[in-house]
Specification:
single chain; mainly alpha; ABC transporter involved in vitamin B12 uptake, BtuC; two-stranded antiparallel sheet; 11 helices; globular; disordered C terminus
């Protein structure tokens, strides 16, 4: 492995990890807070990128384009929520249906499968050409989002969403409209995914109809890695979100190391699946170890 090449590639991994960390926070909200298996993100990431790029190509301010991308992502989450709570479609299937439909929607938005946008012609907020600026800007976005979410989930509405995820039946008995809470949670989640897609499209200089393929795996990897490595350290809700960001960064660092070891890029999906599987297995294996250790300790004490 070329150590110098790895060191040069690491800042890019950190930049990508920060951008995708916003998507991972969105996944965290559905997967951990709402206890909802949402697969919409594979489509809503591209929706955010497509809306942002097309708005900027149309002459809109980049920050206004980010707002448009966020709203578009929230709309995707709304559709998934309506499918689930209004029509009774199971959580996983509702996300798949929305994701499938978004492919055509994204094609309609862009007019073709790929739309490029150059940093030389448009005032992009961040770009692959300036990694240092990308890291700074992405860090600011992550910090602001975490601050807003920390405040929001401390409000009555936010606590109602958390209660719905913890125990839906008990929440309903307490007078909480759990259907509405699910829809709001899905909208917030996919709004963050849309924002992530908008930033990522600017970073790579284009929006592609396939840019969201496998996004849910990356998001889950970040959530799981963050939970396994920092779960016992970061107890506070805001710090858990920070752990998710770190998980996303570590994921891309691992991918970079794997590529530097000479593995083909076509194997990245396999590597991603193995990373997720490995970190999913860690809590279970650790629990099994402590169970056996406790039994041995008990016999010894007896």
């Amino acid at each position: 492995m070329n150590v110098m090449a790895l060191m040069k590639a690491l800042p890019g991994s950190v930049a990508q990890g920060l951008i995708w960390g916003l998507l991972a926070i969105g996944v965290y909200i559905t997967y951990k807070v709402l206890d909802y298996a949402d697969l919409t993100v594979d489509g809503s990431l591209c929706t955010g990128g497509a809306v942002a790029v097309m708005m900027m190509l149309g002459g809109y301010n980049p920050y206004l384009a980010l707002i448009g991308a966020t709203v578009a992502g929230m709309a995707a989450g709304l559709v998934t929520g309506v499918f689930h709570v209004t029509f009774g479609i199971p959580a996983i299937l509702s996300g798949i249906l929305t994701q499938l439909g978004l492919y055509s929607v994204n094609m309609r938005i862009m007019g073709k499968s790929n739309q490029a946008i150059s940093v030389d012609e448009y005032p992009l907020i961040l770009s692959l050409r300036d990694i240092s600026n990308t890291i700074i800007v992405s860090t600011i976005f992550c910090a602001v989002v975490i601050g807003i979410l920390y405040w929001f989930f401390g409000t009555e509405l936010g606590r109602s969403i958390r209660a719905t995820g913890n125990n839906e039946n008990m929440s309903r008995a307490q007078g909480i409209n759990t259907k509405t809470m699910k829809i709001v949670g899905l909208m917030i989640s996919n709004g963050l995914v849309g924002l992530s897609g908008a930033l990522y499209a600017q970073y790579q200089g284009n929006a592609d109809v396939n840019m969201g393929r496998g996004a849910i795996v990356i998001g889950l990897a970040a959530v799981i890695i963050g939970g396994v490595l920092f779960g016992k350290i970061f107890r506070n809700f805001a710090m858990r979100l920070v752990g998710v960001i770190f998980g996303a960064i570590l994921y891309f660092v691992v991918i970079t190391v794997v590529l530097q070891l000479g593995m083909e890029t076509t194997d990245l999906k396999l590597v991603s699946a193995l990373i997720v599987a490995a970190f999913l297995a860690v809590p279970y294996m650790r629990g099994q170890y402590y169970v056996k250790h406790g039994k041995k300790g008990g016999k010894a004490n007896a």
